[in-house]
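agent> Task received from the user: take the single chain below, predict its 3D structure, and emit structure tokens. No templates, no multimer pairing.
agent> Plan: (1) validate residues, (2) run structure prediction, (3) serialize to tokens, (4) report one or two observations.
agent> Step 1 OK, no nonstandard residues flagged.
tool_call: predict_structure(input=
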Amino acid sequence: MEDYLRKNFDVDAKRPSQEALTRWRSAVWLVKNPRRRFRMVADLAKRAEDERKRKLAQFMTFETNVYSGLEVALQWHSSSSDHIQQVSETGQEKIRVALYVQQAALHFIRAADSLQLQLPEDVRDSGFNIGPDQLASISRSHDKNALESIGGLEGLAKDIKVESFADGILSTEISTRKNVYGVNQFAEKPSRTFWMFVWEALHDLTLLILMVCAVVSIGVGIATEGWPDGLYDGLGIILSIFLVVMVTAVSDYKQSLQFKDLDKEKKNIIVQVTRDGFRQKVSIYDLVVGDVVHLNIGDQIPADGVLISGHNLSVDESSLSGETEAVDVNKDMPFLLSGTKVQDGCGKMLVTAVGMRTEWGRLMVTLSEGGEDETPLQVKLNGVATIIGKIGLGFAVITFMVLTGRFLLGKLQNNEITDWSSTDAVKLLNYFAIAVTIIVVAVPEGLPLAVTLSLAFAMKKLMNDKALVRHLSACETMGSANCICTDKTGTLTTNHMVVSKIWISDIVKEINIINENPSVPQGVYDILLQSIFQNTGAEVVKGKDGKNNILGSPTETAILEFGLQLGGDFKVHRNESEIVKVEPFNSVKKKMSVLVNLPDGNLGFRAFCKGASEIILKNCDKFLNSQGEVEHLTNEQRIKIEKTINSFACDALRTLCLAFKDIEDDFNPDNIPEDNYTLIAVVGIKDPVRPGVKEAVKTCLAAGIKVRMVTGDNINTAKAIARECGILTDDGLAIEGPQFRNMSPEEMRNLIPRLQVMARSLPLDKHTLVTVLRNQIKDVVAVTGDGTNDAPALHEADIGLSMGIAGTEVAKENSDVIIMDDNFATIVNVARWGRSVYVNIQKFVQFQLTVNIVALMINFISACISGSAPLTTVQLLWVNMIMDTLGALALATEPPNDELMKRPPIGRNEQFITKIMWRNIIGQSIYQITVLVILTFRGKELLKLSGSDSTSILNTFIFNSFVFCQVFNEINSRDMEKINIFRGILDSLVFIIVMIATVVFQVIIVEFLGTFAKTVPLSMELWLGSILIGAVSLPLAVILKLIPVERSRKATIVKPHNGYEPLPSGPDMA
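)
tool_result: status=success, residues=1070
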């Protein structure tokens, strides 16, 4: 079976090939209800059509950009005719013709539009001077002339009633703006109603056949037995089908609601805007036209808009235009489009279109949902269902042939072969109904859907536990992870940073309390405050409560808080000099630089630089001494400062250097200098380790998951934090990024098994590490990331984990799971749930295969020997519901337990149906078949039954015993290896409810619905006997679990690097 599954039903968890997706679809066979079975499977045809539409839309967007470029070229042509003359006459003429034709076309279009555009009444009544369609078309078509025709940015702001870019709009205007210009939401397909799921469940082919059989049975029954006796058999089948359909629909509908909530959460982006005079965070859904939005590296542009101001702003428009080259956004080309990403720089934009009026919204409305790629478990269980379905079909056909053959043989022996009555027709119809019902039971349609149910349940629980799963397969794959490459800042640490030490003017100071009168020379004090407040990506803003709030990264926040403690004023120092150019911090350069005009009207510029201590120190050749004077930096002094930096780092402090450089007036301000800076200070920032991280790391190591720290910090800081967290051990290795990237592939392969810490790393180093771990060492790798440059590593890893607080939108979009609280303990929780999903599905498969085998064999054996089936159609439908929908609810939604993290990870190629599972399945099946066969043929003697109703009592007792065997076997399936199967049962509320509901409804069927289910009420002794027969499976399970079974050799078992050994499982640890 495993070979067949690997050959036909094996897909990668991440980015599966088109060939693999097509192969398993063609291998699936005997699907009872394709609508339901493949609801959570990607529609490849729709996906291909969407891709075609997307490329067409991208081409149109590209054409629009080209036309805008042509207009710029026209203007350039008119002002630079001398340059054009250098082109050959023929080429010049072609260019001139093309440009003027394009210009004429654009003017014609604008003239036509201007005739049609009239200010709508609701716009005029609300006090706005421009309609939503006209406003949206300006950004969408990059129409610079249209923008200038209404007075440029200022005129646009006036038309949409934005009084001040510094204050933004008022909150009281939000509802009016939404009514006039629309809401920032895209049109979505209406949610499927409950009755749609009912309709979908009714498309089960076997149920449809049974309904036809039931109708025929009713017709024949009334004709032969009269009213109402002839009605009951068929009506019983119809009622059973109705119950199956309703339970299935309720389960599917609740599942769809869970996915809808998760999908909405995934699309919710928090953006920073200025409203009511202060900066605040709002949901992307609350954004309106007129909002002033702040943009930084890695942000997704949340709406169409026009640039207000910015520095080095470049945007990746590949999602719209298909062009991978970044587009520079500036005053000459100020348009920004929704759905694109900020690749570099920062800025502010004025929102001009939201929702369906944006270019992104227009693209989305043309696309249908192609669906998310199916997970490996879903595909594998489709394979298992196919195999079992073929076997079940074979048994159903043979059973029908045997029953029909025996019936015909009996008529032949009695010379009645030519004598047919309606009773004979009913018998044959019942035989056919039993055969169809065997197919209903035998084809485990619920297997692949149980994966979806389990994943939906896990994803919902994880969202409550601060982990948002973006891709279904990530939940599964995390259960196999044997390596986590984690960031340090914010993940292992609290990300609440404070400056605790500073080196300044050759003096080291402890910063313990607020010191508003620091004992530093006035010259150093002033330049230090200038460096802090002018070279920052953060901002001090007034909150609703009137208090100062700092918006920015934790590092920037810590430095600004320190500046405020020193007595600085953000606005005063910020306005001392005009900022000329900004180079925002990125993880490659590991520094931020800013160029400003010299204060007090002095000619020239001043550059400020801050960043990684070693990098900034290398760029410095001077420092400020204790008198505040510039002094040459000697080698001895440099070594002394390096020792200070290392001492800070060994105290687990994050170190940054602040430096400046004065520049002559004739300097080209397009470039900020890289060297010859003057060192102002070295700052040591404390970022404490998160509570619970050490225990979480210990849990990982016990579970066979290696934890590696990959950070851009100083190696001594990294080592100190890693030791505190329990990541770095005595025999572990800590290296720096430059050393790692200069290694050969062979050296990397030999070093990585001992590697525990990589410091001063670039995003490329993280990507290289992940690639080697996955492709050469064959680890299943989870990696964390928060920056835009982490996107390649997040994309490459088996599981990409982005940070919800510190992470950029680019990082989140390339990840599989968003850790909402940036906490390493949450990552461990994701791994626990990943293992739980896998094990829960194994439990369900073990339970369902046992029911399948017993139901098939008992009907087949009885049909062959006695010519009748002990379980009727109605009874088999009830059994099918127990093992399918209810079984999935009970077993596939069990919460994880601590034991899951005391065993090794699930290997990449480990067999899904293990030898342990086969042991349990075969053992329980043999017991149940043996007992039920004995009861079928010797039950009357054993139970001392006599009288006209003895057969009905026996058949009811067999049915009752069979159901209770499944009830107790479901309890057995809670743990496939441990003897104590009741551990944690009270924590699984769904399991308890399903068990109680199953028993209660079984009592109702037997005692009160006998007319429809072909049962009779049982005495108390027979009820106890049925329960006792079922309960025997509990001690039997204990005996089976004591039988040693060899584990799969293909399982990947990782030995933790700190001496922890995976705890053994099985009866020895029960």
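agent> Step 4: summary for the user.
The first helix runs from residue 2 to 8.
agent> Done.
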